[in-house]
Design a protein that fits this description.
The chain is about 35% helix and about 20% strand.
Length: about 400
């Protein structure tokens, strides 16, 4: 029996007040040349202008990023200044879950009455990530250098294993076959290019100009650079890096930003271009699986979420998975007995890349747009994060007071 659940009854996401950059692969665009925090603030200002939202409406800002950037110490107040509206705010991060957790934290801000209109802005630049040098008294050199973001991908200090190894571990545990993983990856690419051709992404992704510190044009971010069409035969011939893992069945690092608003019911009607569309927070769940089995953690989080809410997969209108490995989706499909083709109908991070901070924010925006096209319903979004963790969240989209 379904429970009457609503996580933040007072909070709403106003439809159509969001936007995202394209996500160019690392080192392929002008984003590799600029301060990503400054760019994100200026980009949010541009997106709010396009959506006809006066930035003066915002009274708080939650930003999320995971890769260090210059002046990060000043975090949200600095980014707000780049936005052109000096408001309060804070920075948060939780590896790949950052983009979803930031939206949930904004919901809590509104629910408690602390703030009325909260801007969520997530961003990251994996390109040219900084080198950190950390004091380490136990080392004979007294310092230990972390070279860049790739060290995080390649080494979990709790297990000593790389993220790619967790995918291989999970594939072996669930007895996956390389062919079925490649079939899913190939279909994910087909979904993306079909969605792109339909014009759906034009409602979400905003071309953004990149300027240097002198204000000169460096380039325009107007494509998910690095995404290429793959033939199934090409996937079959790629070298296996671990069990069921090839370059074609895993995502790639990228750069980008995404933003949305969270506000009260009254303000949502005022700010949205379609006030009849209502978007509510329903529930969330998190789970941590056994060490070095990260790709199965999102499935466990979904199971926990369904158990606490009383819903089933049959109740879902839209299902979106952050899938750095195609293995994630295959495990979910097998364990939940859910048709893999119903996942990620409008694209996913396996294909368009993984800048970390904004990944799940863009996925949430895509999922909500898809639900509106369907006339409403429940939206399930889930994904994995560093530390063998999974997160899942439910949103409800209604139109004119009812969801189909």
């Amino acid at each position: 029996m379904k429970k009457n659940v609503e996580m933040f009854p007072k909070a709403r996401i106003p439809y159509g007040t969001w936007g995202s950059s394209f996500f160019p692969a690392w080192q392929t665009s002008a984003l590799a040349e600029v301060n990503i925090g400054q760019f994100a603030g200026e980009a949010m200002n541009r997106i709010l202008g396009i959506r006809k939202i006066p930035k003066s409406q915002l009274d708080y800002l939650i930003i999320g990023s995971t890769v260090p950037w210059h002046w990060k110490f000043w975090n949200a107040p600095l980014v707000a200044s780049c936005l052109g509206h000096r408001i309060l705010g804070f920075h948060m991060e939780q590896a790949c879950a950052t983009g979803l957790q930031a939206a949930l934290l904004a919901g809590a801000e509104v629910q408690t009455g602390a703030n009325q209109v909260v801007g969520v802005l997530t961003f990251d630049r994996t390109s040219d990530s900084p080198v950190g040098v950390f004091p380490e008294r136990r080392a004979h050199r007294r310092t230990m250098a972390l070279s860049d973001v790739w060290d995080a991908f390649g080494f979990d200090p709790a297990t000593g294993q790389a993220m790619i190894t967790t995918a291989g571990n999970a594939a072996r545990k669930h007895h996956l076959e390389r062919k079925e993983v490649e079939d899913v990856a190939f279909y994910r690419y087909q979904q993306y290019f079909k969605t792109k051709a339909s014009g759906f992404l034009d409602r979400i992704l905003v071309p953004l100009e990149v300027l240097n510190v002198q204000g000169r044009h460096l380039g325009t971010i107007e494509e998910d650079v690095g995404v290429r069409k793959l033939a199934l035969d090409d996937l079959r011939q790629m070298r296996e890096l671990d069990t069921c893992v090839t370059t074609g069945t895993q995502t790639h690092a990228s750069d980008g930003m995404a933003t949305l608003l969270v506000t009260t019911e009254e303000k949502a009607r005022e700010l949205s271009p379609r006030p009849e569309v209502v978007i509510q927070f329903v529930a969330k769940a998190e789970m941590r699986t056994h060490p070095a089995l990260m790709p199965e953690a999102p499935t466990l989080a979904v199971q926990k979420l369904l158990s606490k809410t009383g819903f089933t997969m049959a109740d879902m209108a839209v299902v979106k998975s952050h899938n750095p490995f195609a293995i994630n989706d295959v495990i979910f499909s097998k364990v939940m007995e859910y048709d893999c083709d119903k996942l990620n109908k409008t694209g996913c991070s396996l294909v368009w890349g993984h800048p970390q901070g904004p990944t799940l924010t863009r996925m949430l925006i895509e999922a909500l747009e898809e639900a509106v096209d369907l006339g409403g319903g429940l939206v399930l979004l889930f994904g994995c994060a560093a530390g063998d963790m999974g997160i899942a969240a439910l949103f409800r989209v209604t139109e004119g007071g009812e969801s189909k």
